[in-house]
Amino acid sequence: MKLATWNVNSIKARLDAARAWLKEAEPDIVCLQETKTTDDAFPADAFESLGYNCAIHGQKTYNGVAILSKRPLEDATPRLPGGNGDDHARYIEAVVPGEHGIVRVASVYAPNGNPIGTDKFKYKLGWLERLAQHAQELLALEEPLALMGDINVIPEIDDCYDPKAWETDALFQPESRAALRRVECLGFTDAFRACHAETQQYTFWDYQAGAWQKDHGIRIDHILLSPQAADRLRGCGIDRHVRGREKPSDHVPVWCEVAI
DNA sequence: ATGCCGACAGGATGTCGA
User: Is the pTM of this model over 0.90?
Assistant: First the structure.
């Protein structure tokens, strides 16, 4: 089964690009982030016509997540537990039956958190803490589980083109990196790192300052696998060529193959 | 040192992203 994640930066603006990529990549399941539209305006027809079921959790203008799946989507559940009335649409989870058992998947859009030293940064750290709490509860189910999405954290120095350029950014703060490590240390595997030793492999390039042309990117979109999913991991990749197309998102798809 | 670009809402330009 091929699982993928992609921050599309508006599903309406990316409709043609998303359909083109789905046709060529043929993922069984894809988690989308930054759909930036309400549920009633989500272009579900455009994906159903390609054979995908849709579980969506959107909001107007900002955020918004979705899961598309060729197989049935069961128990679709929006929102991370906790958060005291947090109304950002940043998380949706569902169960998908595979040929050899189920897989639980979550589409994750963690807060950016810039600028540091503000409530936005506190919100980021608090949100990642909630993600860790929920992830710990899900691990107790002992299921194949994939947390996939724009985690908005650069894990290591070699996951960005220039650590100095990012040292005051929320995405590369020691606290942010520790928050991601905290999730991983519960027992999750970074699918990309499990398959690839190469450094400077990016999933995001800013629209500004010719970042794509200069390969000034960062790796912030991640697939985190529970032990039961990691045991079945067969490969992982980043579809970086998508960034060079017409009217691209600033993120590209990340995918993995699991024997489920 | 700052903006660069792009999407959105709304109908000009400010907010947000990373």
Answer: yes
Rounded to an integer, what is the distance from CA A67 to the centroid of its chain?
Answer: 11
* Domain layout of chain A by residue ranges: 2-258
pLDDT tens sequence across A127-172? 999 999 999 999 999 999 999 999 999 999 999 999 999 999 999 9
The first and second tokens of residue A11, run together, are 């599903």
* Cα–Cα separations (whole angstroms), residue A192 to A199, A210, A220, A230, A244: 11, 26, 11, 11, 21
Residues whose C-beta lies under 7 Å from strand B: A 7, 9-10, 12-13, 34, 36-37, 60-62, 111-112, 114, 120, 150, 152, 171, 204, 206-209, 218, 220, 247, 250
Comparing CA positions, the residue from A260, A240, A258 lying closest to residue A250 is: A240
Classify domain A2-258 by CATH architecture. Answer: 4-Layer Sandwich (3.60)
From CA A166, how far away is CA A162, in angstroms rounded? 7
Give, as ranges, the nucleotides of chain B with any atom within 7 Å of a protein CB: 3-9, 16-18
Which pLDDT does position A99 carry in this prediction?
85
